[in-house]
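Lab notebook: predicted structure, single chain.

Context: the supervisor wants predicted structures on file for every construct in the current expression panel, including those that have not yet been purified. This is the next one on the list. No modifications to the sequence; it matches the entry in the shared construct table.
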Amino acid sequence: MTTPTAILTDIEGTTSSIAFVHEVLFPYALRELPAFVRAHGHDPEVRRWLDAAALDIGGVVADECIAEILQGWIREDRKHTALKALQGLLWSEGYARGDFRGHVYPDAVAALHRWHADGIALHVYSSGSVGAQKLLFGHSEAGDLTPLFSGYFDTTVGGKREAASYRRIAAELQLPPGEILFLSDVVEELDAAQAAGMRTCLLDRPEDYPTPRDGEATHRHRRVESFAQIEMG
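Prediction complete. Output recorded below exactly as produced.
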């Protein structure tokens, strides 16, 4: 198999621990969101996303009520673009204060550096906002990794289980889908990318998935347990 021109990677369960998102980032947002809305509700960018959430809720709603509903969405792990954007803005403060640093698996860090040095264009596609993606990689435990990436995509391009989203990404990258390798821990996302013509690889990390997935469970996608096992060329 020839080396891909570009790699598109998921974050949670792929480059980074699922536990970091669910045990650090989500609880932080859940706890801090009401105070953040009170303090920044009139900031244009925050206001934009609060109003977007209010539209889905049903119209004009008090900020306090919006914050409560957003907290409910966090508990549900709802993939709502406004929620993801607000979480990214809130996490920006947490990273800046040093309340936490972004988790990236060491094997992912090593492979990303190697692929970048080899001239492979690296891109991110996550349900978290582009802002949140840049924060995680920019304030990672391994330092600032953002210079390794050429671009970032979130759910504004479409849902991660929709083939059309991957076609849009390929079009934006100006590459045939077959020259892009998509990495994810979610089989349904890989199915969608494959349907769009991309190459795929399933990350099945023992740290995140103690029971290995193989055979029919992988839908025949290439399966690895770390970035070190991903072969190029």
